[in-house]
Request: fold
Amino acid sequence: MGEATKCSECGKPLKDQEFDAPRYRTGDEGSPDDALCDDCFDESGLEFVCCLCRNWEHEAYQDRIGDLLVIAEYVYGATTGLYRITAHPYYGGSLIGSQRIFVGAVERIGDVPPGVDTDGCPCGHCCRNCRDALMESAVVDRRQ
Reply:
């Protein structure tokens, strides 16, 4: 695979910092055909990486009621698992130290799905495609 040299959206050549660490429309390991310059990336609304498929997703789908949260490591207030956000706010904490999950604002619906990568954070969010697939799969405990 070749290296990205220009933005797939506007066609402008990538700047040095964009060339050294390109951001792709399709996630962390995109193809050169999907590289975006910083301006087009910011305009795209692609703001977070899904902790399952590693594709970028719009921030609007990160923490709406009904969206999914994966707690992969200990967080005060919740055990590890797959959660549906049921109210806001669902997390909080101090500027320094750990975050906490508000128990009444999330509903545990299953175990941590295989292949989760939260980039070293205790929690991660799922994109719409992975959310829909998880809700249809056996990963979700329908007895709860």
About this structure: The first strand starts at residue 23 and ends at 24. DSSP finds three helices and ten strands in the chain. The radius of gyration is 17 Å. The chain has a mean pLDDT of 83.
